[in-house]
């Protein structure tokens, strides 16, 4: 359906623009024990850094970042991530992802992760491409769902003209070509047929 990409933001005045620069820093990771925190802990281990993780709601942590209570804010969502948009629109911030070596190590730990890159301008003031990893969200159906029903569902979604208006900005990634991003869950026969009709082979 769409990707959940992981990246961080820091006030430009802090001089932080990489995971390595977060050693010893206070980093907001959203709700305690949530996905963002779990993946950040893995990144921190890979980068061999020892940050202090701070929990809270995304809205609260935007305020903490702007108020200097935390040094950076790490989040995962569809890009542009709303909480990071709030931060960069309120102050001059640096948005950054992972180094190539960190991405490679994340793939080893989480084989379902996909490469992700977001061009300059995805956020206010972003002057360079942000590279990171993303987990793709998929619709899961019982294996016994009949083929025609699966075909109709997938075809209806991927050919809808107003999907973003219905489902929001995240639906901009809901297109047939991105079906190849899923390397974990096998596709239903009906989904395979629908995707093939749209020019994508996922067998």
Present the secondary structure layout.
Blueprint: E1 2-11, E2 26-28, H1 35-47, E3 52-54, H2 58-66, E4 72-77, H3 82-90, E5 93-96, H4 100-109, E6 114-118, E7 130-137, H5 147-159, H6 163-167, H7 189-197
Parallel strand pairs: 2-3, 2-4
Antiparallel strand pairs: 1-4, 1-5, 1-7, 6-7
Describe this structure in words.
- The chain has 203 residues and is of the alpha/beta class.
- Helix content is 33%, strand content 19%.
- Strands 1, 2, 3, 4, 5, 6 and 7 form a 7-stranded mixed sheet that branches.
- α1 (35-47) crosses α4 (100-109), α2 packs parallel to α3 (82-90) and α5 (147-159) runs parallel beside α7 (189-197).
- The model has no long low-confidence stretch (mean pLDDT 93).
Helical stretch count? 7
- Give the biggest beta sheet: 7 strands, mixed
Mean pLDDT figure: 93
- The SSE order reads EEHEHEHEHEEHHH
Total beta strands: 7
Silhouette: elongated
Computed CA radius of gyration, to the nearest angstrom: 19 Å
Strand content: 15-25%
The first-to-last residue Cα distance is: 18 Å
Overall structural class, as computed from helix and strand content, comes to alpha/beta
What is the share of helical residues? 25-40%
Quaternary structure of the protein: single chain
Low-confidence stretches: none
């Amino acid at each position: 359906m769409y990707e959940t990409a992981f990246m961080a933001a820091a006030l430009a005045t802090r001089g932080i623009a990489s995971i390595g620069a977060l050693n010893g820093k206070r980093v907001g990771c959203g709700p305690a024990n949530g996905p963002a925190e779990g993946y950040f802990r893995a990144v921190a281990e890979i980068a061999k850094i020892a940050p202090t993780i701070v929990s809270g709601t995304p809205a609260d942590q935007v305020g903490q970042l702007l108020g200097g209570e935390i040094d950076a804010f790490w989040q995962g969502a569809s890009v542009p991530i709303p909480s990071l948009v709030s931060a960069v629109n309120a102050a001059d911030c640096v948005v950054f992802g992972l180094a190539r070596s960190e991405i490679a190590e994340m793939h080893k730990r989480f084989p379902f992760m996909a490469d992700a890159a977001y061009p300059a301008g995805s956020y206010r003031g972003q002057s360079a491409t942000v590279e990171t990893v993303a987990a793709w969200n998929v619709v899961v159906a019982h294996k016994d769902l009949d083929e025609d029903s699966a075909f109709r569902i997938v075809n209806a979604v991927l050919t809808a003209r107003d999907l973003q208006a219905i489902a929001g900005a995240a639906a901009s990634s809901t297109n047939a070509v991105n079906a190849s991003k899923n390397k974990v869950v096998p596709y239903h026969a009906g989904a395979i047929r629908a995707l093939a009709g749209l020019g994508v082979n996922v067998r």
